[in-house]
């Protein structure tokens, strides 16, 4: 049996090696390493895939979130609501810009933002909401957009983990990341659509926001050497665009491969009392950037250790909630409680899931998990 990995990037590359190698060589031959024509081609291709008017690429997913906030021209002290159960980048950029991150709890079933808690967190200072489409499925965007409209708030979708997912928005099927005022994604190599380094993108249907974003990513300029606003230097290089141009053609098949693995796991684990398999909201498909179980009755760490001894990797996303991170102590105090997040950090365990998994590996993982609970 081949060694089991959380994600097999080499195996995925080998299947498209000739296409990728040829594309990279063409970039090298052209010497258009920055702002090459392939960057524009990829932006257009991704826009067409997503059904969105504008795609602006950038250096990474964290930059995408920061630039999205910068494009809204918010003021220091303005509040931005997001979840406490997410990767630090979502909240990091809020604080970095002098804004105030307001963290709310998540739904136990879907890991996405709790709508009731979101409503209670809105104040006169609230200017934006960043829902996180965690692990591969969309947050409740129907309710979120209603809340945003009723309170005159911006919505920035953190779509780093759910690109390719579909969502039923107002009885119309749309792609994750295209519902809010701005959507953001990451092309980190392990993502469902990953490049061979760092990369990110920002989506919007708003022409004015798109123009502002395109300036911000390029030192605040539209015309060379004429800087209209304060910007940053955040670009997707042409080699990464060449890779992504090819891999985008395979994104739907990559998602289906992940869904096959998830279905295999779900069918195998559904009758184990101390395991809770992932739940998918009725309005969204799930593209399983991570396959995350909830392991009950204090068994999580022991199960992780059991699997490790059998050369099966498993990960805990995320072991420390953001309100308890040292970097954010000035924003939160002990009186702020996040009971669902606090429960999840002691239960969640993500199993290997990627496009190259085979039946032998899946059977071995499932058998090992069952052996743990049948001791």
Structure description:
Helix 3 packs parallel to helix 9 (238-248) and helix 4 crosses helix 8 (207-216). The protein has helices at residues 9-15, 17-30, 37-50, 61-71, 89-96, 115-120, 141-151, 207-216, 238-248, 251-269, 300-309, 339-344, 359-373, and strands at residues 54-58, 79-83, 100-104, 126-129, 154-158, 166-169, 172-175, 182-186, 200-204, 221-223, 226-227, 275-276, 291-295, 348-351. The protein is globular, with a radius of gyration of 21 Å. The strands form 4 sheets. A 7-stranded mixed beta sheet has the order 1-9-8-5-4-2-3, with helices on both faces. A 3-stranded antiparallel beta sheet has the order 12-13-14, covered by helices on one side. A two-stranded antiparallel ribbon has the order 6-7. The chain folds into 2 domains: 9-105 and 112-248, 3-Layer(aba) Sandwich (Aspartate Aminotransferase, domain 2); 251-373, Aspartate Aminotransferase, domain 1, CATH 3.90.1150.10. With 375 residues, the protein is an alpha/beta fold. The protein starts with 8 loop residues before the first helix and ends with a helix.
Labels describing this entry:
13 helices, alpha/beta, 7-stranded mixed β-sheet, about 15% strand, about 375 residues, globular, Aspartate Aminotransferase, domain 1
Layout of strands and helices, then pairs:
Blueprint: H1 9-15, H2 17-30, H3 37-50, E1 54-58, H4 61-71, E2 79-83, H5 89-96, E3 100-104, H6 115-120, E4 126-129, H7 141-151, E5 154-158, E6 166-169, E7 172-175, E8 182-186, E9 200-204, H8 207-216, E10 221-223, E11 226-227, H9 238-248, H10 251-269, E12 275-276, E13 291-295, H11 300-309, H12 339-344, E14 348-351, H13 359-373
Parallel strand pairs: 2-3, 2-4, 4-5, 5-8
Antiparallel strand pairs: 1-9, 6-7, 8-9, 10-11, 12-13, 13-14
Helix pairs in contact: 2-9, 3-9, 4-5, 4-8
């Amino acid at each position: 049996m081949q060694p089991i990995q959380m994600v097999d990037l080499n195996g995925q590359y080998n299947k498209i090696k000739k296409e990728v190698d040829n594309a990279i060589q063409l970039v090298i031959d052209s010497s258009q390493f920055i702002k090459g024509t392939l960057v524009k081609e990829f932006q257009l291709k991704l826009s067409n895939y997503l059904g969105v008017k504008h795609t602006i690429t950038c250096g990474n997913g964290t930059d995408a979130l920061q630039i999205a906030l910068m494009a809204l021209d918010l003021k220091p002290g303005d509040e931005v609501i997001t979840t406490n159960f997410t990767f630090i980048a979502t909240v990091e950029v809020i604080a970095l810009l002098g804004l105030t991150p307001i963290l709310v709890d998540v739904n136990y079933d879907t890991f996405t933002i709790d709508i009731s808690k979101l409503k209670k967190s809105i104040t006169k200072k609230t200017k934006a909401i960043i829902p996180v489409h965690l692990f591969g499925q969309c947050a409740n965007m129907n309710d979120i957009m209603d809340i945003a409209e009723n309170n005159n708030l911006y919505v920035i979708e953190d779509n780093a983990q759910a690109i390719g997912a579909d969502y039923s928005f107002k009885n119309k099927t749309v792609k994750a990341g295209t519902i809010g005022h701005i959507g953001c994604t990451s092309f980190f190599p392990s993502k469902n659509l990953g490049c061979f380094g760092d990369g990110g993108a920002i989506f919007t249907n708003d022409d004015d926001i798109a123009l502002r974003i395109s300036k911000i990513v390029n030192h605040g300029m539209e015309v060379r050497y004429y800087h209209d606003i304060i910007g940053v230097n955040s670009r997707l290089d042409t080699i990464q665009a060449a890779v992504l141009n090819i891999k985008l053609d395979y994104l739907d098949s990559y998602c289906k491969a992940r869904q096959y693995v998830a279905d295999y796991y779900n069918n195998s684990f559904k009758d184990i009392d101390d395991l809770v398999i992932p739940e998918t909201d009725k309005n969204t498909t799930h593209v399983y950037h991570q396959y995350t179980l909830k392991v009950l009755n204090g068994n999580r760490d022991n199960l992780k250790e059991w699997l490790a001894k059998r050369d099966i990797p498993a990960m805990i996303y995320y072991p420390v909630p953001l309100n308890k991170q040292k970097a954010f102590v000035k924003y939160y105090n002990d009186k702020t409680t996040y009971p669902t997040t606090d429960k999840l950090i002691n239960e969640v365990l993500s199993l290997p899931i990627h496009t190259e998994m085979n039946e032998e590996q899946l059977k071995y993982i499932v058998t090992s998990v069952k052996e743990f609970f049948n001791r």
